Structures are given as structure tokens and as C-alpha cells.
Automatic annotation (TrEMBL):
Subunit note: Part of the 30S ribosomal subunit. Contacts protein S5. The interaction surface between S4 and S5 is involved in control of translational fidelity.
NCBIfam families reported in the protein's UniProt record: PRK05327.1, rpsD_bact
Keywords: Ribonucleoprotein, Ribosomal protein, RNA-binding, rRNA-binding
Official protein name in the record: Small ribosomal subunit protein uS4
Length: 197
């Protein structure tokens, strides 16, 4: 299986992303100033695709399959693409506050700590549907990580398309997200233009 081993902070700097977007603490290093070199239209489109792939932790082959699926759906292709990426179970676990980063969420899913509708699911790329109930496996609830989350008094900002019950370590999908509810700094239209060339 292919793994992206580029350090996250380095990738954030090269793509011009805030570290908070991927759930990282701010770097203490000073950000180097970039030269004012003009970026071509292709370069800008490629950068937008790389940003989306990095934020959601998806490699090229899988990203292309999401794009092909988004094209076949009704509506705007770019918005469909982001909606599909948001519906990944690892992203939903992150959005519900059961993990501090998407990478951590992916690991929790891979290691079998997460259930969907009461059944263990260990495929991070699985897509959730409306009405799905996401929770933490009974045996995993006693781990230090999930105890801290359940006892946390901090009110988490959960997107409107999800409902969360953090004390019981569960959440559900009430509907699919709209584009204005997806807070990733990505120009999805540029990705569509890149793939349609």
C-alpha cells in the first residue's frame, strides 16, 4: 500500500495551508517568505488538487475515482467531489470530535475502534449514508483517549449535517453536507478544470 511520508508541517507550508486545517498545532518555526513568482493556471489547479488530497489523506488513484463518481452524480461536480470526501468515515470521526486529526481518525478506524450502525468498520475510505450512527466499540471506550474525550467539557463545533453525543461517544449523519458547510480552503472548480483538460 502506498503511503505519503512527507512531513505534515512541510506540506502545509508548501501548499500555503494553515496548520489548523489539518488539526496540527502551530509550528514554532518562522514561515519562510515565498518569492513573488507568478504561478501558471495549470500550477494553480494542480496546487488545489494537492491541497484537497493532503487535507483528506487521499492518494491520486483513489482521488481520481472520487472525481469520476462525482461527475456521474447530479449537481455540480466540484461540490459533489467535496461532499464525497466529507462522507469518508475517517473524516466523519474527525468531524464528530472523536479524533484530533484526520490521520488519527484514520488510524482509529483502521484499528477497529469505530462502529457504524453497531458493526465494526475498519475501512477508512468507506462512505457514510444519511441515518448512519457512528460510535466507539464497547471494548475501546475504556482506553485513555476515549475516556478523555467523553469527560471533556469543551463544547466541540460539529457541522450541522452531523449530530454528536460526545459523552456517549456517538454521532449520526442527519443529511449530506452543503458546500458552504465544508470549511476546507480548496477551490474545487480548479480541480474540475484540471481533470477536464
Amino acid at each position: 500500500m502506498a503511503i505519503d511520508r512527507v512531513p505534515s508541517l512541510k506540506r502545509c507550508r508548501s501548499l500555503g495551508l494553515e496548520t489548523a486545517v489539518v488539526g496540527l498545532a502551530k509550528s514554532s518555526k518562522r514561515q519562510p517568505k515565498r518569492s513573488g513568482r507568478k504561478v501558471s493556471e495549470y500550477g494553480m489547479q494542480l496546487k488545489e488538487k494537492q491541497k484537497a488530497k493532503f487535507i483528506y489523506g487521499v492518494l491520486e488513484k483513489q482521488f481520481r475515482s472520487y472525481y469520476d463518481k462525482a461527475q456521474k452524480m447530479q449537481g455540480i461536480t466540484g461540490e459533489n467531489l467535496l461532499c464525497l470526501l466529507e462522507r469518508r468515515i475517517d473524516n466523519v470521526v474527525f468531524r464528530l470530535g472523536l479524533a484530533s486529526t484526520r490521520r488519527q481518525a484514520r488510524q482509529l478506524v483502521s484499528h477497529g475502534h469505530i462502529t457504524v450502525n453497531g458493526k465494526r468498520l475498519n475501512i477508512p475510505s468507506a462512505l457514510v449514508s444519511v441515518g448512519d450512527v457512528i460510535g466507539v466499540k464497547e471494548k475501546s471506550r475504556s482506553t485513555e483517549l476515549f475516556k478523555e474525550i467523553a469527560e471533556s467539557k469543551n463544547a466541540l463545533s460539529v457541522p450541522a449535517w452531523l449530530t454528536a453525543d460526545i459523552q456517549n461517544l456517538t454521532g449520526s449523519v442527519t443529511r449530506f453536507p452543503n458546500r458552504d458547510e465544508i470549511d476546507v480552503p480548496v477551490n474545487e472548480q480548479a480541480i474540475v478544470e484540471l481533470y477536464s483538460k
